[in-house]
């Protein structure tokens, strides 16, 4: 092959992204323009659940994990927004300020925020409570949404690989954000504050990092293989 033709072909391959090296990968293409809204549960006067000793409040842990998750997803190329950046509720985004219940306006605000930001996926971050034997992260989905169920199953699989516990996605829990959002939502319960081991681990940067890596791997896989 003449050198000039060879150079021409190489330029075309690189310019169109067909070369493995240097061109955009399938992974990058699938994520371009994907918007994720992370919703740190509770906030302000609503502390959520708490540890047995009352020293850890769910709202603070949700925000801490959400902030780190935002950074990790941005590092992967996603556009990410948080429904709250501080220890506040989300009532200011409620479309109807005449609704009397603050709690309801807070939940409405979260759904509206995701709509306004045209999210492709909402990840609502919560921390669970239960008996002392309940343990580990769980994902709750919208059973009628293919996207929600798919994303939830992928993320739960990542959690199960991480913990060695074979937990199943929870379907049919009638939580406001799940029943009112037309955008696919997964609600991630990162662990049980009622379980002393979970409560301890959830506050270590190492364990938080593992949780975040599992969510990021799952979300990445979801966008690349399922809905791209
Ligand atoms: Zn909660």
Q: Mind telling me which CATH architecture this is?
A: 3-Layer(aba) Sandwich
Shape: globular
What is the CATH superfamily?
Zn-dependent exopeptidases
Percent of residues in helices comes to: 40-55%
Query: What is the average of the pLDDT values?
Result: 89
What's the domain count?
A: 1
Provide the β-strand percentage band: 5-15%
Number of helices: 8
| Spatial sequence of strands, sheet with the most strands | 2-1-3-6-4-5
Give the CA-CA distance, first to last residue: 38 Å
Oligomer: single chain
- Largest beta-sheet details: 6 strands, mixed
Q: Give the names of the bound compounds.
A: zinc ion
CATH topology label: Aminopeptidase
Secondary-structure element order, N to C: HHEHEHEEHEHEHH
Given as residue ranges, the uncertain stretches (5+ residues, pLDDT < 50) are 5-24
SSE arrangement:
Layout: H1 3-16, H2 26-31, E1 35-40, H3 58-75, E2 79-82, H4 102-116, E3 121-128, E4 138-141, H5 146-163, E5 170-171, H6 176-180, E6 185-192, H7 196-201, H8 205-226
Parallel strand pairs: 1-2, 1-3, 3-6, 4-5
Antiparallel strand pairs: 4-6
This protein binds zinc ion.
Written account of the structure:
It is a single chain. The chain has 228 residues and is α/β, with parallel strands linked by helices. The chain has one domain (36-226): 3-Layer(aba) Sandwich (Aminopeptidase). It is 46% helix and 14% strand. It has eight helices and six strands. It has helices at 3-16, 26-31, 58-75, 102-116, 146-163, 176-180, 196-201, 205-226; strands at 35-40, 79-82, 121-128, 138-141, 170-171, 185-192. Strands 2-1-3-6-4-5 form a six-stranded mixed beta sheet, with helices on both faces. α3 (58-75) links the parallel β1 (35-40) and β2 (79-82). α5 (146-163) packs across α8 (205-226). The longest helix has 22 residues, at 205-226. The model is unreliable at 5-24 (pLDDT under 50). Bound molecules: zinc ion (ZN). Zinc ion binds next to loops.
